[in-house]
Design a protein that fits this description.
Mean pLDDT: 93
Helix content: 40-55%
Number of domains: 3
Number of strands: 18
CATH topology of the largest domain: Spore Coat Polysaccharide Biosynthesis Protein SpsA, Chain A
Low-confidence stretches: none
């Protein structure tokens, strides 16, 4: 068996990394041939102490600051190349991944059979739905300025021996040939996070080495889709926007490069406009900031001013009054329970309610007299203008700070420029961060887009890579 150096990067995910290290004790690979290095990005949740006490044989490297995925993996790879120069393979692992017993064995087997391969990645399955595939390598779309998943035919997926040639594999579980890491270099640290493993795959391909994905090597990871439901979507999409523009600017040439940048910028500005219109101002600003930082060569880790992630955080900090807008009778009961639970936690919160006619009796215990307004719906589902007028007058003359509503935010409540908390009343959770629409930001988006288009066409950033 070949010598493998596993590298795990972690930041404030103590339970996840401990679970992974426990799993790695029992994988089907000779212990004498596998050495594990954990790179901690300055966690403050007890990760370092837990690894030191529970896994004394693990190499633990402590960074003095959070260097992100790129900087963290680079720290581990530098240590391996300096201290274990004969390592045949480097196995990069996410801290929140779980591995099948044969995951590493299958990766090594593919690499041993394919001398021209530089990288091999695992088949990533959903940790909460283990029969659902998240990714099996992916392709870089140089026409759209995006990426697309590798979607093999069913018969290929049913064959555990299937191996697919792709453009890149995610560093959830990525095995790289040690001598080629020395030859081609480690990750671009300026990325901080995202597009670092994609660029690595493109770099290996450009040098003539294959990037493969093994159908037999299984790991389990939280779904990508679950990462867009909280304030983390703000910084995630900032890095994806900025770093993807860097990638295509460096890996495309001529007029095609300029036109592709314009196409990508247009897509990002459309998303920025849409997210602004649905009151996700911070997310919209992240897209604009990502494009702007690309043009001014502003890379590395960035700080973000994040909005309140849910209405409880909001009320705990701002102590404001809440106005509830119930869209239909079907959500009146769950909405009342949600608000009732909030009032128990924050009894100083005054509650106002806009509810369907006939539902007001449910809200009388929560609202003072005069703090409820009702409406009816016509056969076409619309609210009559007379009821809209009463609602508008109620909202204008009442004292409230945050509007609690469903994902379909009513314009009648949003136009006042106050905070919006889109809420799933049945789950008892905020769907998105608590924000309000910024008319100023919305108006600046087309101006910014025009400026970006001109720069992309006439003076795109200088390419940093020698092709």
């Amino acid at each position: 068996m070949s010598n493998v150096q596993a590298i795990i990067v972690t930041w404030n995910k103590k339970n996840d990394v401990i679970c992974l290290l426990d799993q790695l004790k029992n994988i089907n690979y000779p212990k004498s041939k596998l050495e594990i290095t954990v790179v901690d990005n300055n966690s403050d949740d007890g990760t370092v102490e837990a690894v030191e006490s529970g896994f004394p044989r693990v190499n633990l490297i402590r960074n003095r600051e959070n260097l992100g995925g790129a900087g963290g993996f680079n720290t581990g790879m530098r240590w391996v190349m300096e201290n274990r120069p004969d390592a045949e393979y480097l196995w990069l692992l996410d801290n929140d991944v779980l591995v099948d017993r044969n995951a590493l064995k299958e990766l090594v087997a593919v690499m041993e059979k394919t001398p021209q391969a530089g990288i091999c990645g695992s088949k990533i399955m959903d940790i909460d739905n283990r029969h659902e595939m998240i990714e099996l390598g992916a392709f870089i779309d140089y026409n759209a300025g995006d990426v697309r998943r590798n979607m093999p035919p069913p018969e290929a997926l049913q064959n555990p021996e299937s191996v697919f040639e792709v453009d890149y594999v995610a560093a959830c579980s990525l095995l790289a040939r040690g001598r080629l890491v020395k030859k081609l270099g480690i990750w671009h640290e300026k990325f901080f996070i995202y597009w670092d493993d994609m660029e690595w795959g493109a770099r290996f391909n450009a040098a003539g080495y294959k990037v493969l994905a093994s159908n037999a090597s299984l790991v389990y990871h939280p779904s990508w889709a679950g990462r867009v439901a909280d304030t983390a979507a703000i910084w995630r999409n900032y890095y994806r926007t900025r770093n993807s523009l860097w990638f295509y600017n460096n890996y495309c040439s001529g007029i095609r490069r300029r036109l592709l940048l314009i196409k990508m910028i247009t897509r990002f500005m459309k998303i920025a406009t849409y997210t602004s219109l649905v009151y996700e101002t911070a997310l919209s600003q992240a897209y604009v900031r990502g494009v702007r930082d690309f043009f001014i060569n502003n890379y590395g880790k960035k700080e973000f001013s994040l909005p309140f992630g849910n209405v409880e955080e909001y009320l705990s900090s701002k102590k404001g009054n809440a106005c509830v807008f119930i869209h239909d009778s079907g959500t009146s009961e769950t909405g009342k329970k949600f608000v009732s639970d909030l009032v128990k936690k924050y009894p100083e919160t005054r509650t106002l309610a806009v509810v369907p006619h006939g539902e007001e009796y449910k809200w009388r215990k929560l609202c003072d007299k005069g703090d409820i307004v009702t409406y009816t719906r016509m056969e076409n589902g619309r609210i009559p203008w007379s009821d809209k007028y009463e609602i508008m007058k109620f909202l204008k003359n009442s004292s409230w700070d945050v509007l609690l509503t469903s994902h379909e935010v009513p314009r009648m409540g949003a136009i006042w420029g106050k905070d919006i908390a889109r809420t799933d009343f049945e789950r008892g959770d905020t769907i998105a961060s608590v924000e309000k629409m910024s008319l100023k930001h919305l108006c600046l988006i087309p101006i910014a887009a025009l400026s970006f288009w001109i720069q992309a066409l006439f003076c795109p950033p200088r390419k940093e890579l020698e092709k």
